[in-house]
Design a protein that fits this description.
7 helices; single chain; Lipocalin; 19% helix; eight-stranded antiparallel beta barrel; 321 residues; Rossmann fold; globular; eight-stranded mixed β-sheet
């Protein structure tokens, strides 16, 4: 099924003199995509479905959206493969690359048009789409339940943003287009902070490791068993909580904050006000269950540090009790 997604941005056009009239104009950005709906989609108008966003490689760019079905999930679907989830396969115009902002708007539109289970949105892509998958997941870490980047790579300095996102990476051992090291570097950077990272190398595969990957039946079982991460408060011994009380300083922002502890309650006091932080582990705290912002304590006594993961990472060192 072919679809066209239009994004409209209105703006005013000023003429060259003071008495000129303004005219209403319109900028249109179009994203073509292939859409697959499960066989039983129309049987129950109350049922919601998982969605997989598939990003193609550089060879499928252009104006003919049917080119997207040359590889990956769209190819399997064109060959008669049935899936229990919606598949959205957009196309990038010739000479362009994946833009995460455009994909975010596309997914927003998909969620409006179709019965989507927003706790089970998944992202995958191959080659250029593998890079696009890493990039989008790190830009919008709160969106996807899991990601499957194939023969791609990304910015290792940003992997902390997907510390709560399960990832299954695939790559060919004989890939001479995208070096195996590109995936290996991402996995090595992510594993210390994310226990849910899988890495499969197909030793005899070249650049086309996606055929092997998408024909791995256990991939879909793994994927569909995952729901989007949400923080959940857990009980923590009061003696542990008490050790976090004190003042902390960030020398980059020249900012000081204070942690106060009462029975079962931990507050972060800053110039802008007081925020209650809730534990989801003995040393890890969150503010809102759906907001990818958390605080992590490490070290002991005066050497204790507080790492805040927000729009970026902020390290605060303890300066007093």
């Amino acid at each position: 099924m072919k679809h066209l997604f239009s994004l409209f941005v209105a703006f005013s056009l000023l003429c060259g003199n003071a008495i000129a009239q303004q005219t209403q104009e319109k900028y249109t950005n179009e994203i073509k995509y292939l859409l697959y709906l499960p066989e039983n989609y129309n049987k129950d108008d109350q049922q919601k479905f998982p969605v997989v966003l598939f990003l193609h490689g550089s060879g499928e760019r252009g104006e003919d959206v049917n080119k997207v079905a040359v590889n990956g999930l769209p190819k399997l679907i064109a060959g008669g493969k049935k899936f229990p989830f919606i598949v959205v396969s957009p196309q990038v115009p010739e000479g362009e690359r994946w833009e995460s902002t455009d994909l975010f708007r596309l997914m927003k539109d998909i969620k409006k048009k179709y019965r989507v289970d927003e706790d089970r949105l998944y992202l995958t892509g191959l080659s250029m789409g593998g890079y696009g998958s890493w990039d989008m997941a790190m830009k919008y870490p709160q969106m996807f339940a899991a990601i499957i980047p194939i023969c791609g790579g990304g910015d290792v300095s940003k992997v902390w943003t997907i510390r709560h996102t399960p990832v299954w990476v695939f790559h060919g051992g004989k890939d001479n287009i995208v070096p195996l090291k590109q995936s290996q570097d991402m996995v090595d950077a992510l594993k210390p902070i994310n226990p849910d990272v899988k890495f499969t190398i197909f030793p005899e595969d070249g650049h086309d490791s996606w055929t092997s990957a998408y024909n791995t039946d256990s991939l879909y079982i793994w994927m569909l068993g995952i729901k989007k991460f949400k923080y959940s408060k857990v009980p923590v011994d009061q003696q542990i909580l008490d050790t976090y009380q004190g003042s902390y300083y960030n020398d980059f922002t020249n900012d000081t904050l204070k942690i106060t502890v009462a029975p079962g309650i931990v507050n972060m006091i800053r110039k802008k006000g007081v925020i209650e932080i809730k534990p989801y582990a003995n040393d890890k705290f969150f503010v809102n269950e759906n907001d990818p912002v958390d605080a992590v304590f490490s070290g002991k006594k005066k050497k204790m540090q507080l790492l805040i993961n927000a729009d970026r990472q902020y390290v605060y060192k303890r300066i007093s009790d």
